[in-house]
Amino acid sequence: MLQPTNEIRVELPSPGSSHDLLEGEIECAFCEHCFFVWPFFENGFGRVVCTNFRLRFELSHKAETALPPRFKRFDERWDIPLCSIHSVHYAPVKQNHQSFHKKKFIHVLKSLSSLEIVSSIRLQLKDFRVITIDLRDSQNAASLLNQILFFSRPLKMENIIQAGAELGWCSKLSFNDANSWEAELRRCGHKSDYYWRVCSQIPHGARQFVHSYPMYFVVPADIVQYDLGRMAEHWQLSRFPVWVWSSLSGVSLLRSSNFDVNWEAPQLNDKVAECVRRATKSAEPPHKLSLSDEITPTKIALSYDRLRRLCSVDSYEQFASRDKDWLARINHTGWLQLVSYCLSAAGEAVDWLTNRGRSVIIYGTCFSFLFTYPI
Q1: Where would I find the Myotubularin phosphatase domain in this sequence (predicted)?
Q2: Which of 34, 202, 209, 258 has the fewest C-beta atoms under 10 angstroms from its C-beta?
């Protein structure tokens, strides 16, 4: 005989429903009766919702999958993070009689008037996907477009919602406070501030505010505040050497821009190198890896933009026309050359860190392009 139990069954919200929101996520705008057009995928019909974190496509008839419920919380096809949107375009309602591929889409850089009637919205994503939303049978299209534009271009980093973050995540970005850096130092094997210390840019901290650095960063412990102020004056963009990572084997990775050629800057740089040498287990001086001055942030941005324009296709016909000389077009973007240089420089840094047991300081105005994180 079956005995009654006190078990309580909790029914998870269905994927794509308005109740299936993340902590801190708010529904801001929506449109009903929308037609979603994806190149090389089956199109869909349903409801589109813009939250402060993502764009959600709620299909009228969505096929069930065999995935566990935890994987249904976020679908990479039907849930688009707003931070992944590269550009927003729209077609006025006067072009309603034209097909998707013949419509002339206008690049949106500022909010539209509430009186503007939008026929279609086209989103170009940073992963080169192109999404077209047909809003001819919908209302509030201009409001939806404005919300997408607003939340995909936040004025402050603190306004970007963090999926899965703990309560009180707002204004607490990782590695933008002293506790985050202290925890990272402990994770890398530094249990005291003997070799490294966390420096702050708040008053009574760094003498010269470095806008491209976070509020807190890590520098050698023997580099005092006066030294930081002097280095900020002699290093390009004031980006003096800062700590990035350390291995449990006793080697460290630092990054820096190039310094000016004068009598004081080399002395300060030698002082940093000596501090890094003492923090290295082998007591060997750090290897100084200088990146090419020809690879500038502007060159990287232009190359990426050419690659994005080539790979972002909105129809099979457009893809077929480019497929004939695809490799030549890819090579013309210059992106492959940048990736090759990045891998070569990263390989050199890893070799010095892992095989030769020496710390590495990376110099160059484009050092953000090279991100080496050994394991």
Answers
A1: 175-362
A2: 202
